[in-house]
Amino acid sequence: MRTLVLNAGYEPLAVVTFRRALLLVLTGKASVLAEDPDPVVGPSDVVGRPSVILLHRYIHIPHRGPASVTRRGVLRRDGFRCAYCGRSASTVDHVHPRSLGGADSWENLVACCLSCNGRKGNRTLNQLGWKLKTQPSVPHGPACYIRDLDRPAEAWDPFLQSTAA
C-alpha cells in the first residue's frame, strides 16, 4: 500500500509506504486527508490506513534543474498514450530520428505504440505526412520528480489535479 504525501502547501512531495505515513500521523507530523477502506488492525487498536497525508510543517525543496530524460519519464509525461495515434503506448520514439541528428531530449522524445514506431522507422514526420497529437515539452513541477505517480491511486486524483494546472 502506498500513501501520497503532500507538503504543507498541498503540493505532492513523495509517495511512501502506509507504515511510514502512519508513523508520521501518529507522531503528530502529518494529518490524514484520505483513507483506504480497509483499516490497519493492531493488537489493541484499529486505525484507518492513510491514502493521502498532509505534513504540518512546510518542507523546502531546493531548486532542481529539469528532470533527467528517461523512458519512464517520457511515458508518464505523455500519459502512456501514443503521440501519433492516441492508443496505449509502451515505447518511446525520436520525433527527429537519431540517425538524422535527433537528440535525446524532452522536446524530441514522445511516447509511442509499437505499431506506429515500426511504421515510422527512420523517417521524419514530414516524410510521412504525420502530425503529433501533443507537442513534446520539458515537464515542470514537483510531480515530475516523484516516483510512483505513473500509477496513482483513485483517492489521489483530487490532490494531483489541483497541481496539474
From TrEMBL:
Highest taxon, organism lineage: Bacteria
Protein name: HNH endonuclease
HNH nuclease domain boundaries: 69-118
Recorded GO MF terms: endonuclease activity
CDD domains assigned to the protein according to its UniProt record, in alphabetical order: HNHc
Keywords: Endonuclease, Hydrolase, Nuclease
Organism, scientific name: Zhihengliuella alba
SMART domains reported for this sequence: HNHc (SM00507)
PANTHER family on file: OS07G0170200 PROTEIN, SLL1193 PROTEIN
UniProt KW Nuclease keyword: yes
